[in-house]
Amino acid sequence: MNDTAAREMFLLKLGEVVLKGLNRRSFEDKLLSNVRRRVRNCGKFNVYSRQSTIYVEPLEAECDLEGAYAACRQVFGVIAVARAMPCEKSKEAVLAAAKTYLGDALRQAKSFKVETKRADKRFPMTSIQLSQWVGGELHDAFPHLSVDVHSPDLTVYVEIRENAAYVHAPAESGAGGLPIGMGGTAVSLLSGGIDSPVSSYMMAKRGCQLEMVHFISPPYTSDAARDKVLELARLLTPWTGRLVVHLVPFTHIQEEIRRGCPEEYFTLIMRRFMMRIAQQVARRVGAHALVTGESLGQVASQTMQALAVTEDAVSLPILRPVIGMDKEEIVQIARKIGTFDTSILPYEDCCTVFTPRHPRTRPTVEEVREVEAALDVDALVAEAMAESSWVRIKYEDGRRITG
Length: 403
Known about the structure:
The protein is elongated and about 85 Å long. It folds into two domains: 3-173, VC0802-like (2-Layer Sandwich), CATH 3.30.2130; 185-402, HUPs (Rossmann fold, 3-Layer(aba) Sandwich).
């Protein structure tokens, strides 16, 4: 790492957090904690907040700046991330930093402009004056450039802040949303499909700390199918941080449903059991909601009537962030967050075990309750919970800790 790169740092711009009122400080503190945890594995960084911006400064030459930069862009609560060069608060130092730090970009561009933000009003020049002076000097130093204030190839940003001046190119988009931990804890039902990882991501973006539940049905589902779901959880950790996946055996429940209930109700009653078990997990971990990847009308168990039947089995709220999205919209998000290619791997899923040929699409709560009365619901739920296990997947290195 050369001397210039050794001083490079990141400016993280806050998004929705700045709109908070009296509790804004708690959101900022949580966001700072999340950023520190995410960059910790990339070396020693000084992470602090000033004037609606989080500063991430490397403290040693060995810091992995590329890794830290990628991590910062995936922290919910951050709307944009700029790689910046700090310098003294003088026009000469700003010009020198721009020439050195952005020299390659300036040589490659055909047009440019300078945009200044003067947060420190004690600085003797106005924003416009500094932009004009730096722009004129850069034009002299790079005579091939033309000035274009409307749509330049490169914008040189100058920020005059409390501790220093900062020079950077345009910022890259961040994850947006709210800091994880500020939206409470929810239990997300994670299958091997496309929708449930996307719904988990979307609730994490609203600040939810997530615990995951996955149902396994050996011998109808394989270890490879289970590992696929654990891989999906690992792919989510750059966004969510570490995750715990609760693995719940579901074979006995499904066999009892097949033995005691009409075929057309199999999926509905299976979903009711999944909700009950997820609610038990939620109570165990102190969560206050369930999350599913249901999308209205996508399959037979996701009609309005079927969703009402599912909700009847639990008292916790069920959050359905993709309920109004079509499949292509969900796929686009899956590609963005990196789960799509794993989701489409052709491994079996417990939801496809004993699928009815003609599922009931317009059930009533009363008729499903009556059909379900043939089963010892409480005993089956208790048995599944007693035989459940868990896997903790750490964001830092992808390791799995089981128990």
